[in-house]
Design a protein that fits this description.
248 residues; alpha/beta; Rossmann fold; 2 domains; seven-stranded mixed beta sheet; 11 helices; 7 strands; 21% strand; elongated; tRNA (adenine(22)-N1)-methyltransferase activity; methyltransferase; TrmK
């Protein structure tokens, strides 16, 4: 391959990566910046590890996935950018490819909150040994917050980002002690309420609308829903908090 051909190939590769640098991915990059060793669990195409390495945000990155197919694609992408000396790939389920203390920061992103809970539970020793857990649930964020509170993880802060019409959250946590929490804390954490980051108002308003819609559906059901009373109390608490704290 001539130098011109190599330059053209690299330009194509750069354009490909630019197309996949989404707001969610950029948020994760910012949160993980400065960690010595980062493990990306469920790395898929390895876009996050590649950008961490290219931008010098981590000294060493471990890209892990439970499926051989996505891991092969990750390896191909890593090789395309000449980063095989910076990014190590591993095949395995959840946190099983890691040993406790091996990764300073662990990212688990793009999965449902319930799946993330299972990964943390099954790989507890690895999760608790990490200095930072960066968790970006695609769904069931309240369940994930509840799991963290109940199982002795400190929810340090949250980051919000908008991608298309949806607002995503990244939970930044570390090992700690079980703590008292309310149902409202599971839906809007104390960290979010205290920091009020950009998009907070939109996030709270969307949550309020979702709860009202869910309650309306439960009330129309022929049989009483088991969680109807719980949701009604939560909606009232959220409404009172919004009115008292002005989320605008």
């Amino acid at each position: 391959m001539t130098e011109t051909e190599r330059d053209f190939t690299m330009q194509q590769t750069d354009r490909h990566m630019a197309c996949h640098t989404t707001p969610r991915l950029r948020m994760l990059l910012d949160v993980l910046a400065g960690a010595r060793t980062v493990a990306d669990i469920g790395c898929d195409h390895a876009y996050l590890p590649i950008l961490l390495a290219r931008e010098g945000r981590a000294a060493h990155i471990i890209a892990a996935d439970v499926r051989a197919g996505p891991l092969r694609r990750a390896q191909e992408n890593i090789a395309r950018f000449g980063l095989t000396d910076r990014i190590e790939t591993r095949l395995g389920d959840g946190l099983s490819p890691l040993t406790p203390g091996e990764a300073e920061a662990i990212a688990i992103a793009g999965m449902g909150g319930t799946v993330i809970c299972q990964i943390l539970q099954q790989g507890e020793a690895v999760a608790r040994a990490a200095e930072l857990l960066v968790l970006q649930p695609m769904s069931a964020a309240p369940d994930l917050r509840r799991f963290l509170y109940q199982n002795g993880y400190r929810l340090l802060r949250e980051r919000l980002v908008q991608e298309d019409a949806r607002i995503y959250t990244a939970l930044i946590a570390q090992n700690g002690e079980p703590q008292h929490f309310t149902e409202l804390d599971c839906y809007i954490s104390p960290a979010l309420r205290a920091e009020r980051p950009p998009l907070f108002s939109a996030y709270a308003e969307k949550l309020y609308t979702q709860l009202r819609t869910a309650i309306s559906g439960m009330r129309r059901a022929q049989r009483p829903h088991a969680r109807l009373e719980e949701y009604e109390m939560l909606l009232k608490e959220l409404e009172q908090w919004i009115e008292g704290k002005d989320i605008g």
